[in-house]
Amino acid sequence: MKIEIIDEKFDPWQSLVDYKRDELQNNPKIGASSVFLGTMRDFNEGDEVESMELEHYPGMTEKYLTDIVNNAIKKYKIIDGLVMHRVGHLNPTDPIVIVATWSEHRDNAFNATRAIMESLKVEAPFWKKEDTGKGFRWVKPAASQETTESTNEI
Amino acid sequence: MKIEIIDEKFDPWQSLVDYKRDELQNNPKIGASSVFLGTMRDFNEGDEVESMELEHYPGMTEKYLTDIVNNAIKKYKIIDGLVMHRVGHLNPTDPIVIVATWSEHRDNAFNATRAIMESLKVEAPFWKKEDTGKGFRWVKPAASQETTESTNEI
Amino acid sequence: MGKVMKLYIKYFASVRDMMGKDSEVIDIDTNLTVFGLWETLTLNLKSDMKVMFAVNHEYVGKDFKLKHGDEIAFFPPVTGG
Amino acid sequence: MGKVMKLYIKYFASVRDMMGKDSEVIDIDTNLTVFGLWETLTLNLKSDMKVMFAVNHEYVGKDFKLKHGDEIAFFPPVTGG
Lengths: 154, 154, 81, 81
Hints:
By secondary structure, chain A is an alpha+beta fold. Chain A has helices at 12-24, 60-76, 106-123; strands spanning 2-6, 32-39, 43-44, 47-48, 51-56, 80-86, 88-90, 95-103, 126-131, 136-138, 152-153. In chain A, a hairpin with a 4-residue loop joins strand 9 (126-131) and strand 10. The relative contact order of chain A is 0.23. Chain C has a five-stranded mixed sheet. In chain C, a hairpin with a 2-residue loop joins strand 3 (50-55) and strand 4. Chain C is globular, with a radius of gyration of 12 Å. Classes of the chains: A alpha+beta, C alpha+beta.
């Protein structure tokens, strides 16, 4: 497993190839690899976005990413998983997150990568602040992600 | 769009990066990329597999792959799609197929890549023949894939 | 007896193994369906093989009517990906 | 009045902006829940901000009881990925 928080621009495919070369290249039990890459768009909620700051909670973020991938390994019987996530200053087209899973059969890898992304979106402590050119704003989560046991209005 | 049938071992990630560099690198409308890679295992249906021959129907295969990706572009409103598929002699751990889609939002890319793979499995004319060390055998499709309008028992 | 038409026939994978060849060109009576052609070609073979039909690179149903110059392919269910 | 305990508090993102600081260490009465602590800290603030609670890097519900030495974090719903 690989979990990494990265504070400068990275090449997600190269990172994937490097990891695969080291850990997985010669594993003939792998029949399926599913990869998701999230990249920064130059628009959000109808506005142009010039750049973005991505903040995280060191320690807790890594812990949750590790738990999320371990849960996917168990639930979907995948062979291995990887999550790499940017923090810091990002520009449009910059990679934000790459998630990869490896399994014997395609169903498991597809489902695991999707599940990791969905869990990451609601559990992993990252926060985005956008510069729209007219000022900064904190990104709001999608409506479906707004409630958890520990969310409270004050 | 890129559709390619490849008759020798290839590096799927490098192919992806090359295509992205040429066609998509600077498209700031892309927020999500979903990639599936199928690789050859050294086992199938309980038996060891030493190598495999992959055959296709030149002309029809490319036509169906193109139609499948075009349908996904329309249905899932993705920005672009890629399919590269091996034919010829393969050994365990060799890449068989890479499917990639690019979209604004993750839901579309996830669904499009999955849909392309499922359609490819039942529509694209490819056939696998395995060498189990005890002889050759044609691979049978999964039970769910066995019937189409034009399938008939004789 | 109708007009004679020329058909270009291809066999793939296990169907090719069964037929013992990968292609043939035949001249045959018109008003033939793809399944009719298949029955003609396999008259002397016993097989429970599932077969799919494609004409000019498109899947077709068993009642599809053939015409002069068609390329017809017979093959088992596909197993790519 | 119970025993005094030391708490290490962190604020992130829009919660940090509202609090005007990113962390503080406080000594406070025992028998406090995480929501009780939040109410104490925001007594003079008006806000309808949604806030999430984590104690020692784990999400907790509002009734979670704090103990000496805990690291408590307050932040808005997460927006990574």
